[in-house]
Design brief:
Two copies of one chain form a homodimer.
Chain A: H1 12-27, H2 34-40, H3 55-76, H4 84-101, H5 103-110, H6 112-115, H7 122-139, H8 153-172, H9 182-197
Helix pairs in contact in A: 3-5, 3-7, 4-5, 4-8, 4-9, 8-9
The first copy, chain A, binds a DNA duplex (30 and 30 nucleotides) through residues 6-9, 12, 33-35, 43-47, 49-51, 54-55.
Chain lengths: 202, 202
DNA sequence: GGTGAATCTTGACGGCGTCAAAATAGCACC
DNA sequence: GGTGCTATTTTGACGCCGTCAAGATTCACC
C-alpha cells in the first residue's frame, strides 16, 4: 500500500541510500544530484542533509557498500596454492565481472571523485584498505618462497591489483579496450600474474 | 607591455588553451570552469563559445595536447630488442613521470570526463589511438617469437598498458599506492612485463 | 500534557554551462 | 572614403546544482 504522505518519512536514511544506488547505476555520478534524489524519495530538497552531512558523505556511504561487496566476493573465490592457475583465472574473471556489473559503483569506489577531489571518510578508508589487505592475505600463499629473492608479496599484490584496476578502467571508460577483447586480455593478465608468482625468471 | 583592453582580443583561442592548461594543472578539472577561465583571459563569460563549441570541446583540445606530448615521449625512449630490460625500465619510469608531472592532465586524457560522460571528438580519438598504436609498434620487436605460442603482441600491449595505467591511477588518486612505494612497485611491473615477453613460461 | 530533540519545509545565495539577442570591430569591395 | 558582411564580444536570462538559515511539524520521553 502506498502510505499517505507523512511529514516524517520514517526510513529516509535507507531509502536515500537505496535510491542513490539505483540512480548511480542508471545515470552515473554525474546524474546523481541531491535534489533529484530527494525528489525520488518524495521529500524536499534539503531533507537529505539531516541524514548525511553533505553529498560527499552520501557518496562515501555508497562506496563503502561497494567495498563490502567486493570484500565478500574476494573471500568466495577458491585458491589452491598447489595449482594456482585455475584459481587465479577465476579471481580475475570475478573481479572484472564485479566491475562491469555496476561500472558506476566501481568508478565511485576507486575514482578521484572521492579520493582526490572529495574527502574519503575514515570509515571508507578503513573498508577500502581492509579490502586490499584481504587480497594480500589471499595472494600470499600462492607466492612460491622456495628460492630466496622470490617476489615480495606486497609488491606483487600492488602490481597485480594495478593490472586488474587498469584493465577495468580502460574497459569501463571505453579507451583502448573493447568488450570483446576482454577475455583474451584477461587471460594475458592471468599469464602475467602467474609468471610473477614463480621467482624463476632471472 | 599590457596592451589596452581591446574589444577584440586577437589571440583568444590560444590564450584560452594556455590558461586552461594552467588552471587544469593547478586546480584540476573541478576547478576549471569556463566562467573562471574567461575571467582569467580578461574576457566576458560567453566569449569562449566563439572559439570552442562547448566545454567538452575545450577539454578535448586540452587532452589532445597531452596525447601529442605522450606520443613524442614514447618515441624518445631507446629500446634494444637484444636486451629489453633496461629499455623497459626506462619506459616505465618515463610513463610514470609523465603521469605524475601533470596528474590532472593525465586524468583528463584517460578519465571518464571525456570518454564516458563526455563526447570525445574524432580528433581526440585519432591521436589517442595513434598513441597506443605507436606503443604497440615499439613493443613488438621486443616480443620473442622463437617458440610458437609466444605472447600475442597486441594482447601483451593491452595488458601491459593496463598495468601502467592502473599504477598511475592508484598512485594519482592516492589509493593503495604511496609515492615512496612507487619505485619498488614499478620495478615489479617491469618484472611482470619482462616475464611476459619470453614465451618460456608453460 | 508539556518539552526538547529530531525531522522536514520553504526561501535564499552563489556558482555553473549555455542559449538568444544586441553591440562592436575588422575587412573586403565599391 | 564609405558600405555592408562577418567574426567577435557583450549583456541578459534560464535552469540546474550544493548548501546554509530559519521556521514548521512531529516524535519520544518525563
Amino acid at each position: 500500500m502506498s502510505r499517505p504522505a507523512r511529514y516524517h518519512h520514517g526510513d529516509l536514511h535507507d531509502t536515500l541510500l537505496r535510491e542513490a544506488g539505483i540512480l548511480l547505476r542508471e545515470q552515473g555520478v554525474e546524474g546523481l544530484s541531491l535534489r533529484r534524489l530527494a525528489e525520488r524519495a518524495g521529500v524536499s530538497r534539503t531533507a537529505p542533509y539531516h541524514h548525511f552531512a553533505d553529498k560527499n558523505a552520501l557518496l562515501c556511504a555508497l562506496a563503502e557498500q561497494g567495498f563490502r561487496r567486493l570484500d565478500t566476493m574476494m573471500g568466495e573465490v577458491e585458491l589452491d596454492p598447489a595449482d594456482p592457475e585455475p584459481g587465479l583465472r577465476r579471481f580475475v574473471r570475478a573481479y572484472l565481472r564485479f566491475a562491469s556489473d555496476d561500472p558506476e559503483q566501481y568508478e565511485l569506489m576507486f575514482g578521484r571523485t572521492l579520493w582526490k577531489s572529495g574527502r574519503p571518510g575514515d570509515e571508507l578508508k578503513g573498508v577500502a584498505y581492509g579490502c586490499f589487505r584481504h587480497y594480500l592475505v589471499r595472494l600470499r600463499p600462492l607466492v612460491s618462497q622456495g628460492e630466496n629473492e622470490g617476489a615480495e608479496p606486497l609488491r606483487l599484490a600492488q602490481a597485480s591489483w594495478a593490472t586488474l584496476h587498469g584493465l577495468c578502467r580502460l574497459l569501463l571508460d571505453g579507451i583502448y579496450l573493447r568488450r570483446e577483447d576482454m577475455e583474451a586480455v584477461s587471460d594475458q593478465a592471468v599469464g602475467l600474474m602467474l609468471a610473477a608468482l614463480r621467482p624463476a625468471w632471472g
